[in-house]
């Protein structure tokens, strides 16, 4: 009989999805720093019979630049393995014939090169930090309020994140601001959106119960994956907080010290298969 | 038998509360411009046996500067008759021993001169337009998130307002942003808060059913006053829109073309008393 618990369920797994920041590396000055054991853990997964994908809400740079950074840190990762919100947004925009007004980091703009941005009929926002000026937010608002059918896309819905100099407001805060201003509901692209996780599963050709998501964010990684039918494992690195283990709404299928431990547990189970 | 409808109810009225922008005047270049008949209407009320107060969510300047502007336009108004959110906030802060971090227009800062602002234990925001930079909002967020019991006060909760150069995001949008960032609920000071209307009634020494509010904002003026037990009359000036007359949640007790018409109806009823 199949074991549906963790780590017993690893026996029937066919794919692993890894969050990046806080699981593979910690951000900081320059490229940041790899989390102990994570480079080796990725290598082990790559030589296993499991499929591997990376899933991030990173929107400060293009996937190319982002992957180049990870490779400099020592990770064996290629662009095709990485799922991030900007390319997912581009797919949605093209599918629906939408022309975006963009309020995003300059670094991620090239992801939208192939999209028609003239005479915008929707607004796309992503973490933009200092670019979230009153003037820029007001401009996005005026575009939305002037549309017959206003559509707002938010690449992620985080509240805040931590940088070297302290906490910083994330895109979700500005999503809520525009939602209230225009009396509408934004469409979130990225984790924890089920559509986003499903696109990774589709790429692997797997059913949800055949995959596990490993992340440091209990709500967006673990809860989002579980909502999609996958197992969700939390690592005690990155933005993990002890209070996550008694969260009122989300309970991880397993909690491990770090990615290295998670991968060893998975591969040991499979070894005993 | 007392007539509880409009304008019959005017017979038993003892006080009138007037919104200012959009009822007395339209804002614009310089001081803006008085709405036709409104200067005379205020004069008529002042020579009647009715008490008169002004109630505004204006937070761009001190009451002194604001009243000086109205007087330049020709209105017979004194500071003591005007109720605005900043002095109401100061009263709340002192009552509760709170020391605010302020994110407000420079012009309204003097209203807070008497308040201790060292080592802040709450945040007060008001319409601040260009001062709502990412850096300033992030600073307010960091103060809040660092508090054991975070308290956020918002002077009004408007979505947007209109200026010469187009629509501009109002304080409510940034209130929602900080509410989401810190997972808390702000306390609104100003219209439509019942506490705010009650402070005007208390100053007049009247019960809610003895007073009427006249405003151009269906939700904040009319709905707020009604929620407090007063009658609420909407004028078809300022931010009035025809769709207000079929609003799903708020129905004015009466709708009139402008303040002059409202005052004539009230005084005619009383003449026939």
Give structural notes.
The structure is a homodimer of 273-residue chains. Chain A is an alpha/beta fold and 273 residues long. In chain A, 33% of the residues lie in helices and 19% in strands. Chain A has helices at 38-46, 63-73, 85-96, 134-145, 171-182, 194-204, 218-227, 259-271, and strands spanning 15-18, 25-26, 33-34, 51-55, 82-83, 100-103, 122-125, 152-155, 160-163, 166-169, 187-189, 211-215, 231-235, 254-256. In chain A, the strands form four sheets. Chain A has a six-stranded parallel sheet with strand order 5-4-1-12-13-14. In chain A, strands 6-7-8-11 form a four-stranded parallel sheet. The first copy, chain A, has a two-stranded antiparallel sheet with strand order 2-3. In chain A, α4 links the parallel β7 and β8. The longest helix of chain A has 13 residues, at 259-271. The first copy, chain A, is globular, with a radius of gyration of 19 Å. Chain A starts with 14 loop residues before the first strand and ends with a helix. The A-B interface holds A 129-135, 137-138, 141-142, 145, 159-160, 166-169, 172-174, 176-183 and B 129-135, 137-138, 141-142, 145, 159-160, 166-169, 172-174, 176-183.
The structure class of chain A reads alpha/beta
Instruction: State the assembly state of the protein chains.
Output: homodimer
Mean pLDDT of chain A: 95
Strand content of chain A: 15-25%
- The amount of helix of chain A comes to 25-40%
Shape of chain A: globular
Main β sheet profile of chain A? 6 strands, parallel
Query: Greatest interface and its residue counts?
Result: A-B, 29 and 29 residues
Element order, helices and strands of chain A? EEEHEHEHEEHEEEHEHEHEEH
Question: Which runs of chain A of at least 5 residues are low in confidence (pLDDT < 50)?
Answer: none
Distance between the termini of chain A: 12 Å
Q: Report Rg of chain A.
A: 19 Å
Strand order of the largest sheet of chain A: 5-4-1-12-13-14
Count of β-strands of chain A: 14
Number of helices of chain A: 8
